[in-house]
Amino acid sequence: MTRTFLPFPHRHAVSLDGSSSLPPPYNTLLPSNDWCVLEHNQKLAHRLSSQIRSTIPKIQKEYNTTNFLEGLVFIKSPKASSTTGMGVTLRIAHRMGQQKYQQQVTQGHLSLRNKTTTTTTTTDGTSPDGPFPICTSNYSHPFAFFKVHKYRKDPCFVWTFVRHPAQRAVSMFFHFFVSRQGTVPNATNLIQAIQPTIGGQSRYITSAPLSEPSYWIEQAQAWERASRDDTTTPNGNNNNTALHKVLQLARSVMDSLDFIAISERMEESLVVLQLLLGLDPMDVMVMPSKIAGGFEDFKYNRSSRGCQATKKPIDIPEAHSYLQHNYTHSNIDYLIYAAANRSLDRTIEWIGKDVVEEQLQIHRTLQQLLVKECTDETYFPCSPEGVYQPEKHFQNCYERDSGCGYPCVDRVLETYVLANQ
Fold first, then answer.
1. What's the pLDDT tens digit per position in 94-120?
2. Residues 6+ positions from 118 with CB-CB distance below 8 Å
3. What are the angstrom distances between the C-alpha of 35 and each of 1, 12, 65, 342?
4. Using one digit for the tens of pLDDT, what is the confidence trace for 339-374?
5. Burial class (CB in 10 A: 0-12, 13-18, 19+), 302
6. 160 contacts 205 by C-beta, under 8 angstroms
7. Distance (Å) of CA 313 to CA 39, 168, 294
8. b/e for 269-299, b at 16 or more Cβ within 10 A?
9. pLDDT along the chain (421 residues), means of 10
10. Less crowded by CB within 10 Å, the N or C end of the chain?
11. How many CB atoms lie within 10 A of CB 181?
12. How confident is the model over 244-285, as pLDDT tens digits?
């Protein structure tokens, strides 16, 4: 299958004031693996994650003087398709790493360590015959929370998912409060739990220094007042200082990233990511996490893991008014979500709607094939019955519950490609 190389896009193909001029022309092409920095030892993310957990007090100093923040960076925001995004990141890192390694061997830049072509890996990210060559990738929750990605060093590609703010807030409530703490799912508890999340998605994904939620709320309230000011022109161009500051704040969030995917537009987003990086459709295919069942891998203490039942969100009619009105007021996440959707629309226009639609149909065909052929061969950390199964998922997932079922995905897609050549 031939890879399609596209010009590297403008970071965001829409401005926050609503204008929609297309990005300027580009004179150079970005080969699909220019951002890929081969990692020959253990997965960088394992080291990064452990370092973050053990050196949080020294984190700013640590990363101010370290220059290994390269490659493919996924900003993993809680309850915003983070498991899928992490799985896609790891799949791209593995597949492109193998390709780039083989290219360098062919070009004489590297010597072939072994003659085998097996893709079997152990739990530490190595192959039986030596270190497994993958592209450097970063994707841990602490990594994003402590803003380490502001120390990015080219070549680097930073991306994330954003989700509708209210849907994300409700999902967080049921995941962290109802499932893990046994909180009763009623309107009072829901409102109390999600009130602090106003502006939280934006704070999480930006590379700006951590700031108090009250600051973001204050700025967003100023934006709310400014938007009602009669002196504000329809296109947002005015001399209102408060509005200008809020737009600057929003722009800092958008500029922290090279691509923002939309949870509610999952298929479109992955296809656009594929096209922007010049990848094959197979490079972004992962098994849907929704087939995992009603249990999650949970660390009970330092030495033991197990499975905990997860409660699916239910409708709470008494909370409708709050979610539709109070929660939206002064919530900058809605501005970021709207801008990200507009940016995705304009990026699709720039690439070409016909090109995206063609690849979207391929993506859907392959996804349906994988669900049919690989569901029974996909083993998450927890079985559908709630039994922890490390002996199965260690060899079946890239890491924890991300990219599970990839051996079957690889086999089925390779067979499909050979049959359709």
1. 888 887 777 766 766 555 444 333 333
2. 127, 128, 129
3. 21, 18, 21, 26
4. 999 999 999 999 999 999 999 999 999 999 999 999
5. exposed
6. yes
7. 39, 11, 12
8. bbbbbbbbbbbbbbbbbbbbbeebeebbbbe
9. 35 42 33 64 41 38 50 89 93 85 66 40 38 73 71 81 95 92 95 91 76 54 54 47 70 84 96 92 90 74 74 93 90 90 92 94 95 93 89 87 92 89 74
10. C
11. 8
12. 767 777 787 788 788 999 999 999 999 999 999 889 999 999
Question: Token pair 């001029």 is at which residue?
Answer: 21
- Helix pair angle (266-276, 353-374), 10° resolution: 110
Residue with tokens 């497994």: 132
